[in-house]
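hey so i finally got around to running the thing on that chain from the lab meeting. sorry it took forever, my laptop kept dying and i had to restart like 3 times. anyway pasting the input first so we r on the same page abt which one it is
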Amino acid sequence: MRALLTAPLLLALACRAPAAEETSVDPLLAVVHAQEAAWNSGSVEAFMAAGYWQSNELTFLSGGDWNRGYDNVLTRYSARYTAGEAEMGHLTFAELEAERYSADHGLVRGRWRLDFSSDEAQSGLFTLVMRRLPEGWRIVHDHTSLGEPDGGGS
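ok and heres what got predicted. didnt touch it at all, straight out
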């Protein structure tokens, strides 16, 4: 008799709807917004720390280059935006779309734009594969494209 009463309860628990924190895209978007703020504060290191997985398995694809590893991606950003006379510019993310595929996996895509005081704006598209890790949500794969120099983003 106890088994007959317990079975429906177990079935109900197994079929429960996922908790809101397991389906919300807000934590994924928070990472992107934190990166935007860190970039605009003038720190490539803070930008990286705000979002990227600090692992040799991190991947970053852009401009025909394939970079693997947190340190390599940091070196790429530093060389491009902080070496010599380079200007970091003002970063804006737009048209953000986020999806959760499970409690621990998701994706964010959108447009990026960098406005410079002494050069033409740059823009493009990005897709971020994200994973929830012990330290929080982190970008584990970034595929970023560069659009037209005038900010066309095509």
